[in-house]
Amino acid sequence: MASLPARYSRSIDWVTVGLYVLLVGLGWLNVYAASYSPDAPANPLSHLSFGELMAFNWFKQILWIGTAVVLIVVLVVIDYKAYDTFAYVLYGGMILLLIATLFIARPIAGSRSWLELGPIRLQPAEFAKFTTALAVSQFMAGINLRQQNWRDQLTLAGLTLLPPLLIIASNETGQALVFGAFLLAYFREGMSPLILLIIAAAGIILVLALLVPKLWLLGAFTVILALVLALNTRVLRHHLPLAISIWALVIGMVFGVDFFFNNVLQPHQRKRIEVLLNPSADPLGVGWNVTQSKIAIGSGGFVGKGFLQGTQTKFDFVPEQSTDFIFCTVGEEWGWAGTLVTIGLFMTLLVRIIYVAERQKSVFGRTYGYCVASIIFFHFAVNIGMTIGLAPVVGIPLPFFSYGGSSLWSFTTLLFILLAIDAYRKQDLVR
């Protein structure tokens, strides 16, 4: 054990650690700015009691960062083989916890997704991401995704879909959508690109079904399909039943989107989609958050108003400004230059994670690395997208920036499990 710290100091990927420290530090500065009040004491740490300080998000975030440091030490000290060996055990435990959350969690804003342990609130959905990443990585280490049979495909789909289904049952749709990011990792390991194309095409058709008259959409698709069949007689001879099935499926999707939109989605979810498609639909209601967020980001100009000088955030025009809409604080106080630096740091981290994933000597390590990159990318892209009106407001945090212990612990765990596995990559056998 005495040689453990020295071994890690030589093997740990310090570039990734440095990027993590930078992002967490910048995140805390923006949480402080978002919750800063000009009326607060100049030196609150010396003028306020612990109980009074706990009323401030920036102070609680310091505590979360401190506990994250302890978590990092635990994660890197644990034998890296434990993550492979106990992947299914951790996954099974998280599934049981998600089920328990449905029954014992207190409803908060219509969602049963938070467990309360005294003054601490934890969201199991956040931690389900790394347990699912470990489980699917362990499963994929034992199969060849390019040659897998239907049983393997169904097993992988079940491992991936069970957690988000339980999360949706707790009325936390945004967190459930994140699990779609695993498709990027599966694509790296040999999943047919046709699956991604089918999913993308289905998404485009569903969006068009909300924007374009249905008969026009079906007419255009029918003409395109007929032209493909007419111009390629081989397709017409051998794949006519498949073409008819696709046409029937598209009809079902086009006419089924209304049922899903009106009977499955909740009113606030329908409103968010309507506002995304038509920003002027409800500017003082559901569209308020995004409108004020865009005003805050746009008002920052090139270099921003300056640290603690943001007016939109100081006067609480932007709801959830410490959590889901933390990026608008970056835009207002640091301007275009600050947002460019922030986005650049995230992109650098993602590239570094992919580099770390590619140098793994095991399928387990490589797949897990791509799962980490996919999850962080999804959060990063969707969170920033929703603050500037390019994505619906689904309530997912910006990694390492948004206030909250569950979020910080979850992303810290995701990242440092990968670094712990990477530190021992030279000892892995190719499987």
From TrEMBL:
Transmembrane regions: 12-35, 55-78, 85-105, 165-187, 194-212, 218-235, 242-261, 334-355, 367-394, 400-421
GO molecular function ontology, one term from the record: glycosyltransferase activity
Membrane-related topology note: Multi-pass membrane protein
Subcellular location: Membrane
Protein name: Cell wall polymerase
Keywords attached to this entry: Cell membrane, Cell shape, Cell wall biogenesis/degradation, Glycosyltransferase, Membrane, Peptidoglycan synthesis, Transferase, Transmembrane, Transmembrane helix
Biological process per Gene Ontology, one example term: cell division
Alphabetized InterPro entries for the sequence: Cell_cycle_FtsW-rel_CS, FtsW/RodA, RodA/MrdB
Keyword Transmembrane helix found: yes
PANTHER family, per the entry: CELL CYCLE PROTEIN, PEPTIDOGLYCAN GLYCOSYLTRANSFERASE MRDB
Any one of the GO CC terms: cell division site
Pfam families tied to this protein: FTSW_RODA_SPOVE
